Amino acid sequence: MPIYEYACRKCGHEFETLVRSGNTPDCPSCRSTELEKKLSVFATATSSAEAAPAGGPCGSCGHPGGPGACALN
Ligand SMILES: [Zn+2]
């Protein structure tokens, strides 16, 4: 299920919510349904970037000799 980010047009509250088809979200702050849907693609991009190997000298094995050091094995 996709998570969408909304901004309330009435009180300006911004929130994320799961949206199922046929289900109208409302503002958790003022219960208004006058919401502006925002793109939430960056949320997925952020999580995939965090899933990438971080900081290891060699991206594939973590060999301290640096990139390519493990290719001789
Ligand atoms: Zn609101």
Key terms:
1 helix
Bound molecules: zinc ion
The total count of helices amounts to 1
Q: Element order, helices and strands?
A: EEEH
Q: Can you give the mean pLDDT?
A: 76
Shape: rod-shaped
Which strand order spans the largest sheet, edge to edge or round the barrel? 2-1-3
Unreliable segments (pLDDT under 50, ≥5 consecutive)? none
Global Rg:
21 Å
Cα end-to-end separation: 43 Å
Q: Which range does the strand content fall in?
A: 15-25%
Secondary structure class reads alpha+beta
Describe the fold and architecture.
Strand 1 and strand 2 (14-18) form a beta hairpin. It is built from one helix and three strands; from the N terminus they run βββα. The chain has a three-stranded antiparallel sheet with strand order 2-1-3, with no helix packed on it. The chain is rod-shaped, with a radius of gyration of 21 Å. The protein is of the alpha+beta class and 73 residues long. The chain is 15% helix and 21% strand. The structure holds zinc ion. Residues 8, 10-11, 13, 27, 29-30, 32 line the site of zinc ion. Residues 8, 10-11, 13, 27, 29-30, 32 line the site of zinc ion (ZN).
